[in-house]
Amino acid sequence: MTDCCPLTIEYPDTSKEIPDLHLNPYSWTKLANVIFLDAPTSGFSYAKSPETYKNSDTLSAKYTYQFLSKWLEKHSKFISNPLYITGLSYSGITIPLIVQEIFNGNEAGNEPRMNIAGYVIGNPLTDRHIDFNTRIQYAHQVALLSDEIYESTKGNCNGEYVNVNASNKLCQRDLQKVDECLENVYVYHILEPICTSDTTTRSLLQQKFGSSTNKYPVPLPRAAKLKGQQWCRDNTYLYTDVWANIQSVRKALNIREGTIGKWIRCNDDHYVIGKNDTVNYAYDVSSTLDNHRNFTQKNCRALIISGDHDMAFSHLGTKRWIRDLHLNVDSTWAPWFVKQQVAGYTESFSHDDFTLTFATVKGGGHAAQEFKPEECLAMVHRWFDHNPL
């Protein structure tokens, strides 16, 4: 999960050619031994043939299971450790598939047997229909849509905003109005500014330094100020692009020459409603709700986290699919605290040996720990120790 990592990239001095790396005081490595894995494959991962480069949701889970099996065979001292699979966002699709592969492997008698204890997912895409459909409901609840626009859209579309009949002109009209209200809102944190052609510094950096990554450009916040631009979060992510494409960094990381061209931080086209398969990737799972139902029959723990200012996959959709699991309610909605301040709200559920804790992070965005790292570290620390949040 992003920003659980032991290192952060800071905005350096203009005299330096590469970003500064600093220890993250809120890294989850303070609590556990962590394997950071690009899954589905991305980053510096590569294939030796075009055929093996092709991937899918289900294949990615199988590859991850194979990786964990080989890793544990080589590092057998960790086999007895409780194993938690964690991630965020699109991992709401892949993590339940991985956990299912592990349970299936254990039940089939595969070795090494993995001591799977549970999973943690932040602002997950769990069910495309539920999660995309609740965006409009969320936008209304946080006053981005008026009562009139919401009620008209809900009525004319019959509460269905994903699979819309093209002949339903009233629904199409209302959705156009919704788009006009939301298109300039930053979907990953509704209170933050969206990056626009006027606020992005990418064109400025390319103009000043070309496409070369051998030199480090003017720090993004400072570059923005040079043009009188407003800060926006996506610009800060460009630091990772710069750092990962510096030749000395690649050499230090032992990246094999010729395997990867330009390093790209993230492919976000899977967040598009109705996204079709690409040449190399098949989005072959639209919902993992059945996997969560399967886990209710296992000895398993789950922690589901929602930054409450995320509109991409809001807490409303998450709460809806959790209700669909029909679990027993162990504790009802209540605040949880960090340093005597409300850090969010939580409720817990169970069925036999399965437990699920749901928690919102007050002020958190799509990756809650990126926006509220101290609070999220405190949360997972308590949860890993089997304590109430």
UniProtKB/TrEMBL annotation:
Entry keyword annotation includes Electron transport: no
Annotated Pfam families: Peptidase_S10
Residue ranges that the Swiss-Prot or TrEMBL entry lists as coiled coil: none
Biological process terms in GO annotation: proteolysis; secondary metabolic process
Gene3D superfamilies: alpha/beta hydrolase
Positions of transmembrane segments: none
GO MF annotation: an example: serine-type carboxypeptidase activity
PANTHER family, A to Z: SERINE CARBOXYPEPTIDASE-LIKE 7 ISOFORM X1, SERINE PROTEASE FAMILY S10 SERINE CARBOXYPEPTIDASE
Protein family per UniProt: Belongs to the peptidase S10 family.
Name of the protein: Serine carboxypeptidase-like 2
Originating organism: Heracleum sosnowskyi
Lineage: Eukaryota, Viridiplantae, Streptophyta, Embryophyta, Tracheophyta
